[in-house]
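Lab notebook, bench 4. The sequencing result for the construct came back, and we need a structural model before the next group meeting so we can plan mutations. Quick request posted to the team channel:

Model the 3D structure of this chain.
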Amino acid sequence: MKGKKKEPAKTYLFRISLEAAPQPSRVVELTEKQTLHDLHKTLLHSFGIRGKNLYAFYLSGKRLDLETEYGGPSSSTARKAIKSPLGKLPLERGKPFLYLLDYKNEICFRIEWIDEQTTAPKTSYPRVVEKEGELPEAEPPLEDSLPEPVKKWAQRVAPAIQSRILNRAKPRGPKDVQQDYGLLKETQEVLEKLGPEIWPLLEHLTEMLLVDWILSLPADLAKRGMAEEALKVCDDFSVLADKRYFLCEKALVYAQMGRRQRALEQIRENLTSFPEDRRVINKAAEAFWRLDQAGQAERLFRKALDMAEDDINDREHILERLVAMLKEHERDEEMIELIRTELDRG
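Done. Here's the predicted structure in token form:
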């Protein structure tokens, strides 16, 4: 018996136009499963834009509208472009939305969903369907004017950081931990040589992924017997980036080390200082879980889940941790009910 014939995937055609004169435009086509981040990369390619810049999409079409903002992979936005498939977004055909590139110079593009089709055989997506006009001549790429230590760092370290973060679902093995710790030391050497004022440039060169990458290191270092190094990472970089998230990692490292009292003190300090920060609450729940305080952990996981409301990406992450904890404690019925409730939310 032949299986049911698979229906071809949908594709979306978007017209992209520079907001300012002379308004060159492109028509691009992507599949429903490709993301806003894919649209970002296609836009850069189609207009020949080089370099790495912070970016965001605003589905309302209004600049800096936080309610409809989808940011780059490491932005502070609640919704991430890299985790947002086009087919699941609340787009309206004919209603333009906004793409903002480079917050310093504010280069804006209007994007309009103009048509819907199905994937064609032997065709690769995304693809550029139509080109009209060219962008004004751009300034030389930032990379051409970098100090030599930063240029070497950008060539060797930045691509490794980007690759690691974009493949974060794959756990680090012992060799990976050592390699990443070596990259971290190279990063610290650049900072020592040129001073902390170079930090924003390093973030920029990793498409704002640098902080996320560093935050992912302490827990893995602690697991590999490098707990003191992990604590030092938290202390060294908390003065350069948002310290609350490094304080959360310190609590997790203390819990990993078995320093129960110090971990509890750090958790309490974090929750007292940042009582309404969803990420702080979620990380506190993880630390309580590691300390075998399942009741406290569950309460905070559920609080974070309630605070996430309609943020699908955060809800998935929090739910994953809560489900794992319930499964660990053989609370299968509650786990199934939790998953069922989440599926009912759509």
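The domain at 10-134 is CATH 3.10.290.30 (Structural Genomics Hypothetical 15.5 Kd Protein In mrcA-pckA Intergenic Region; Chain A).
Will bring this to the meeting.
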